[in-house]
Specification:
Elements lengths: L2 H16 L6 H20 L4 H12 L2 H11 L22 H25 L2 H24 L3 H20 L7 H22 L7 H37 L6 H26 L2 H30 L9 H24 L8 H31 L3 H28 L5 H29 L4
Keywords: Membrane, Transmembrane, Transmembrane helix
Protein name: DUF4153 domain-containing protein
Length: 447
């Protein structure tokens, strides 16, 4: 076995261990380092590469036993228990309660920032800055939790400050297209910066990028669940108070929403970090339910576009909705890939995903044709150019994904190639969003 084959064996072992949700990414790195050290020692003792690998893995313990050991030592990472305190009575180590305490303090800080900004800014300026009022507190939580090196933290902080300055100092026309585009693309830039901190500064690691993709999907699920539950609770409370002629609306708008919305977002992030197995059980069900439904929706969208008459007459709002659908498809695809067992053989669901990608490509091709036709007929505008750029990025992403997925379904490619393409291409969206925020204002006269 040469070094390449040995590294492939180690990578397969690492992927298997990483799929055990009781093992955190940092722990997988540490376990891999121990495995490499044992292999080097055994090779030095005269064993060949294959023998050294097998013996080293055996000495680390059976993988199931390793997972159970991590489950005992890091019970806060398990979903089946809400919060467990350490049994040894130590107080110096981090505990779920301490994590939650720090998170709640940051949530209060985010709510306070939103409350102050809402009181002092006009509506347009507040919407433009909303992302800068909440995401820095989430990034601060990951800085506290991950302890990344100072350099990436400084880069993230500086980049966020520059983005905030540009969004607020550019002389945008009130209600202009470039102002709306900057406000819409700034969250993408900020979320990518949060991802750098989430990865502990190891953003170049494909594993860490895929972990962040998985975290993003699970965060969305939990935030929606919290929002729905909170909405029902507030509705019942408002109904009860109305019976005694108490109007909850002023308190709701002035205090509850400014604190509860960002608070729920940060608490959802803490839940994803602390409790993983429940979402892991839900995720495959959600992806299997929504993949065929989304495919049907894309087919209907394709028919609507194809029968809408001349492409120049296609309604702009319809094209915007189609872009939103394509982004949703991409998010569903990424989350499905992140939640899939990379060692499993291709099956029926992989074929359904391939059909989903083909349907998305058909819709994207029609949307691109409509956009190019409108630009040729009526000229370029900030909105048209931004939409065209996004659709071109989606086209490249989906074409390559479809090709790799086809090869995987035909068992001519491994799943690692498909997964690697997603993690390597994702930063392109952040770069494009940064270009929109930085360049579109000056290019289009801040109109």
């Amino acid at each position: 076995m040469d070094d390449t084959a040995l590294e492939a064996q180690i990578d397969r072992w690492r992927d298997y261990v990483r799929r055990h949700r009781a093992v955190a990414p940092d722990d997988v790195d540490e376990m891999t380092d121990h495995l490499r050290e044992r292999i080097d020692d055994l090779r030095g003792a005269g064993l060949d590469d294959e023998e050294a690998f097998l013996v080293a893995v055996k000495r680390l313990g059976r993988l199931d036993a390793v997972s159970r050991e991590f489950a005992r030592e890091h019970s806060e990472r398990l979903w089946k228990q809400l919060v467990l305190m350490p049994d040894d009575g130590t107080t110096g180590a981090r505990t779920p309660w301490r994590d939650l305490g720090v998170l709640l303090a940051l949530a209060v800080g985010a709510g306070t920032a939103v409350k102050i900004a809402a009181a002092g800014l006009d509506e347009e300026t507040f919407v433009r800055n909303a992302v800068f009022l909440v995401l820095p507190f989430l990034a601060a939580y990951f800085v506290w939790k991950r302890r990344p090196p100072l350099h990436p933290v400084a880069v993230v902080t500086g980049s966020a400050a520059v983005a905030c300055a540009l969004v607020n100092l550019y002389p945008f026309a009130p209600g202009g297209s470039t102002a709306l585009l900057a406000a819409a693309h700034a969250p993408v830039v900020l979320w990518a910066l949060v991802g750098v901190v989430y990865a502990g500064g190891r953003w170049r690691s494909p594993d860490r990028r895929m972990d962040f993709v998985r975290f993003t999907g699970e965060l969305a699920i939990y935030f929606v669940l919290l929002a729905l539950g909170g909405g029902v609770l507030l509705g019942l409370t408002a109904g009860l108070l109305s019976l005694v002629d108490v109007d909850l609306e002023p308190v709701l708008e002035g205090w509850i929403l400014p604190f509860c919305v960002p608070g729920a977002f940060l608490v959802a992030a803490w839940l994803v970090e602390a409790k993983q197995e429940v979402v892991e059980n839900i995720a495959p069900v959600l992806t299997r339910v929504f993949t065929p439904l989304t495919t049907v929706m894309l087919a209907v969208s394709f028919v609507v576009l194809a029968t809408a008459g001349g492409l120049t007459t296609v309604d702009r709002e319809l094209l915007i909705l189609l872009d939103a659908v394509l982004v949703l498809v991409l998010a569903l695809l990424l989350y499905s890939i992140s939640a899939r067992d990379p060692m499993a053989r291709p099956g029926l669901f992989d074929g359904l995903q391939l059909i989903l990608v083909v349907a998305a490509l058909a819709v994207d091709a029609l949307a691109l044709t409509a956009m190019l036709t409108r630009i040729a007929e009526f000229g370029a505008s900030p909105n048209k150019v931004a939409a065209l750029g996004l659709n071109l990025l989606l086209l490249v992403h989906l074409v390559r994904t479809g090709w790799l997925l086809l090869g995987f379904c035909r068992r001519r490619r491994g799943f690692a190639a498909l997964e690697g393409w997603q993690t390597s291409y994702l930063p392109v969206y952040a770069v494009w969003a940064a270009c929109v925020v930085v360049a579109f204002g000056p290019l289009f006269g801040f109109a």
